[in-house]
């Protein structure tokens, strides 16, 4: 990557920002509640301005120390030595000032203070007080993306989607709302426009921990069409004993069959039922390959095959090997 490429990439972001205003942070809120965010100040008589972030919304953010920013503005009226001015600007961006204070609006919990977002990290904060013997938790994930640090507040029950289809969750979020994560069950389906119903089984977090691997079937609205099946794997820290009492889990969704191409050229593939014909033009200079069985419920009569054979216009055959492996549950 050249300097010109970097400027072309960064320049698009710079040109879309207001003159003199840079927002190095982006705060996202998929908690299920409106979120009030303010900069934490060490001065008791100075309260940082609160900003409201609605559920499933985001706002740009930057830290400003009110006292140091005032000194910077005053210093512009005088002639200062370059070294003094430089050290002053460095103090404005001091990491000790980069802490947040948040309040979950319309909720019963107290404010959460001292949230540092200086470094990329994943931190879990307990919410006080506890109710009915349950201490709910808030997860803060800080990570850099496209030269902006995204700070995401959400529950500890998340549903990463590793399929090629957009997925809907009852409640409409890839992170289950905080209280719903503990007390309620969830249902899953592909995007409603694809014509599939919600899965029949409602999933509770305790069942997901007890049985971490399962197949989720979503029936088609058109009964003549097959159901959409997804493989769901519950990922959690097995050394964390608190998982038995509170959902600190990821429910990772994957396709039942994943195909990885390790060749040096592109391929086209079709997954078909035996006996189904299809129209295929193939590649330029190549015919389509022979069929290979990759999954079967009758291995004696139809065993799984580990080789594909292609043939070009001159009759030269190319043998491609197929390697099957089970995806590790920890991934």
UniProtKB/TrEMBL annotation:
Start and end residues of each Vacuolar protein sorting-associated protein 13 VPS13 adaptor binding domain: 93-271
Native source species: Austropuccinia psidii MF-1
Stored InterPro entries: VPS13_VAB
Superkingdom field: Eukaryota
Protein name, UniProt field: Vacuolar protein sorting-associated protein 13 VPS13 adaptor binding domain-containing protein
């Amino acid at each position: 990557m050249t300097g010109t490429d970097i400027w072309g990439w960064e320049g698009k972001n710079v040109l879309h920002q207001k003159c003199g205003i840079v927002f190095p942070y982006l705060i996202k809120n998929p908690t299920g509640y409106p979120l009030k965010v303010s900069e934490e100040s060490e001065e008791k008589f100075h309260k940082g301005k609160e900003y409201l972030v609605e559920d499933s919304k985001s706002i740009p953010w930057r830290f400003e120390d009110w006292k140091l920013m005032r000194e910077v503005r005053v210093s512009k009226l005088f002639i200062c030595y370059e070294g003094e001015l430089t050290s002053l600007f460095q103090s404005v961006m001091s990491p000790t000032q980069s802490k947040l204070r948040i309040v979950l609006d319309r909720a019963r919990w107290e404010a959460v203070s001292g949230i540092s977002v200086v470094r990329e990290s994943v931190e879990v904060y307990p919410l006080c007080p506890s109710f009915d013997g349950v201490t709910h938790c808030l997860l803060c994930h800080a990570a850099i993306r496209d030269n902006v640090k995204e700070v995401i507040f959400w529950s500890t029950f998340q549903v990463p989607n590793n399929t090629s289809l957009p997925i809907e969750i009852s409640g409409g979020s890839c992170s289950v709302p905080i209280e719903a994560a503990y007390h309620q069950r969830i249902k899953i389906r592909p995007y409603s426009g694809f014509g599939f119903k919600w899965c029949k089984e409602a999933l509770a977090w305790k069942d997901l921990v007890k049985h971490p691997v399962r197949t989720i079937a979503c029936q088609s609205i058109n009964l003549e069409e097959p159901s959409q099946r997804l493989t769901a794997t519950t990922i959690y820290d097995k050394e964390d004993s608190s998982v038995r009492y509170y959902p600190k889990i990821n429910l990772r969704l994957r396709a039942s069959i994943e195909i990885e191409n390790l060749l040096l050229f592109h391929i086209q593939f079709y997954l078909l039922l035996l006996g189904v014909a299809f129209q295929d033009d193939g590649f330029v200079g190549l015919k389509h390959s022979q069929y290979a069985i990759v999954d079967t419920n009758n291995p004696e009569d139809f065993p799984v095959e580990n080789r594909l054979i292609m043939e070009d216009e001159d009759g030269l055959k190319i043998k491609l090997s197929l390697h099957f492996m089970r995806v590790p549950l920890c991934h």
